[in-house]
UniProtKB/TrEMBL annotation:
Residues 1-23 form the signal peptide. It comes from Ictidomys tridecemlineatus (Thirteen-lined ground squirrel). Keywords: Signal. This is UPAR/Ly6 domain-containing protein. Residues 22-104 form the UPAR/Ly6 domain. It comes from the Eukaryota. CDD domains: TFP_LU_ECD_PATE2. InterPro entries: LY6_UPA_recep-like (IPR016054), PATE2-like_ECD_3FTx (IPR059168).
Length: 114
């Protein structure tokens, strides 16, 4: 009887351990301004090649220089930090994947990050 119980214990369901990487989420917003999402609010989930992206859009004004117009937040495959100029428009892109909704906290960053 003791041997039988021992056998049952050994054959019993083995604890299955799932090493499940929790997918990170990012904030999505097509127009973020003055601390609020005005348009296209949502979430997106990262996969192995994507990162949370923050794009700050600046418009050049003759009197005041570069002024932040709005921010766009999303998930982007192969996100690359950059600073691009299109005539009177500047787009600063930041990428992160260190924590959930990390792109939210970069929304008002206005500095070079190279
Ligand atoms: C985004 O995710 C957060 C946290 O999981 C949740 O509270 C919120 O309702 C979600 N928003 C949308 C628009 O799905």
């Amino acid at each position: 009887m003791d041997k039988f119980l021992l056998l049952l214990l050994m054959l019993g369901p083995l604890p299955v351990v799932f090493f499940q990487a929790q997918a990170l989420m990012c904030t999505v917003c097509s127009s973020f301004k003055d601390g609020r999402c005005l348009k296209g609010k949502g979430n997106c989930t990262l996969n192995s090649v994507s990162a949370c992206r923050t794009m700050n859009i600046f418009i050049f004004s003759e009197t005041d220089g570069w002024l932040q117009d709005h921010t766009e937040l999303d998930c982007q495959n192969f996100c690359f930090p950059s600073q691009l100029y299109y005539e009177q428009v500047k787009v600063s892109t930041y990428c992160c994947k260190n924590q959930d909704f990390c792109n939210r906290y970069q929304k008002f960053v206005n500095k070079e990050i190279y």
